[in-house]
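Contributing new records

If you add data, match the layout below exactly. Sequence lines come first and carry their own label; structure lines follow with theirs. Keep one chain per record. Anything else will be rejected by the validation script.
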Amino acid sequence: MEALILTCSTGGGHNAAAYATAEGLTLRGHRAKVMDPYTLIGEKVAKTVGGTYVRMVQISPKMFGIVYKMGDVYRRLPLKSPVYVVNGRLAKRLDRYFRENKTDVVICTHVFAAEMLTYMKNNGFATPPTVFVATDYTCVPFTEETQLDYYILPSSELDDEYIKRGVSEEKLRPFGIPVRKAFRDGPSKEEARKALGLDMKSEYIIISGGSIGAGKLRTAIRVLAPLLESEDKRLIVLCGNNSGLYGSLTEKFGGNERIMIMKSTQDMPTYVRACDVFVGKPGGLSSTECAAARVPTVFISPIPGCETYNCRFYTGRGMALAVKDVRKQLIPAVRKLETEPIRQKMARQQEKYISGRAAEDIAKFCEEIAK
């Protein structure tokens, strides 16, 4: 089977879901190509689209929240959005791609790509079977104006929300958000630490700003730093692709041997499985990755919009803790997760709601619809 997976670099989660889906297909013997559809116009356009989002979130998360709310308001109007119109301009280029490249199924991990395929369907272009993979625990704005064949949801508990937005119930498949197999079936904590050269006796806390290095990382480090010497804890700080943040944190904390400042890493499953607690913003993918690895999780600094819903979904089901005031609440949250019964209860809740097998289930489903 030949699968095309369309993604967009507005944050790393959409790409991570795309590559996890590709991994699931490849493990079952299929060929999968991951592509940003804007590259059909040019690499510069693709970088501009992704970069605009990243800069907005890094500079002003509140501004992104306002934009998100505008999308929420627009979805109530009986008109096609500008997002649909603009993305429809790629219809001819995608049509040419499908005619020149055998494609048995096309999977979208971003609503922009789903808008492109919807435009094609509405204007007489032929498409392979189409699948949308949601990467957040809510129905994000503009999803309701897409018309793909199937929708992969993070949970069956979101069915009603999608149905209320006009997506037919028969199109819904609650397989979960796809994550790489190594988060679920990777090395043990001891094996992971050995592979990474980490100390076996210390407690490790990961502080992550996601792929874009967003959130109150500096504050979180300052709050937790006093614990490092007195309690033999160590911090692994992941700055993602935010080179400015990496530089400033390295300058301020680089001299502390108990604080490891890193950029992005291709070995995220091993780091997650090596840590005792994960502290970070509630991205749809990072949340699911931690849950699949059964790692105790504390959320800080959700980006207003979909991450607010992600946070609510996880904390409401006991799969994570969340703190609003990092200065006052982060240490008590970390202390709470040091208690073994609480850690075990959180792991049970993560296992109840997050199988970590979505990529395999999506691959099997695509085999059925591509026949």
